Amino acid sequence: MVQSISTLLFLPTLLMPLMSHSQTDETALKQFENVVKTIEQSINESAEVIAEPRPGSSEWWRRKVTTQAVQFDVKRTDSIVTPLAGEALFSCDTQAVKAQTQEDAQTLPFTFSSKTACKAAYAYQDKKWVFKKMQCAYPTSNPSRSPSWYEVTSPSNGMTGRCLSLLPK
């Protein structure tokens, strides 16, 4: 009888980490859902950008970046420092026009569009989501071929760099 009472008293102590673990997961998931909403809002609400000609060029560019519904996934890891990893999948949909003058760039209709698949990696550390990296892949003309992912490291990486500059850090 004494052993069964001590077992009953000890059982909640064993279950407590499991209960707080699921609360942490639920909180982290809600926080990541907010990160995903912020990605979608910041990209879709971003202003058009007028880019000056690069050295050696006389072409002005105007660009507008949007995205469609952002998908995401959160996975448990075996790391103590980063117990969860989140990934947001989205497209950087860019419309652009190039022109010979700044005035034309501001007024001409868009003549170019592209969709680039992107994924942003986040790690759950110290009870918050931390941005780690962004990768993009241009569409392939061969549907049976897997896209080649590359890391976008700078906002000056053209159109995908614009998407990077809009992500929550």
Radius of gyration: 23 Å
Query: Averaging pLDDT over every residue, what do you get?
Result: 82
Taking pLDDT < 50 over at least 5 consecutive residues as the criterion, the unreliable ranges are 1-20
Note the overall shape: elongated
The tally of helices reads 3
Number of strands: 7
Helix content: 25-40%
Distance between the termini: 56 Å
Q: Could you tell me the strand content as a percent range?
A: 25-35%
Largest sheet: 7 strands, antiparallel
Order of helices and strands: HEEEEHEEEH
Structural class: alpha+beta
Task: Describe the structure using short key phrases.
169 residues, alpha+beta, seven-stranded antiparallel β-sheet, 3 helices, 34% helix, disordered N terminus
Question: Would you kindly provide a written description of the structure presented here, covering whatever features stand out?
Answer:
It is a single chain. The longest helix is centred in the first third of the chain and has 43 residues, at 2-44. With 169 residues, this protein is α+β, with helices and mostly antiparallel strands. It has three helices and seven strands; from the N terminus they run H-E-E-E-E-H-E-E-E-H. The model is unreliable at 1-20 (pLDDT under 50). It is elongated, with a radius of gyration of 23 Å. Strand 5 (112-125) and strand 6 form a beta hairpin. Strands 1, 2, 3, 4, 5, 6 and 7 form a seven-stranded antiparallel β-sheet that branches. Helices cover 34% and strands 35% of the residues.
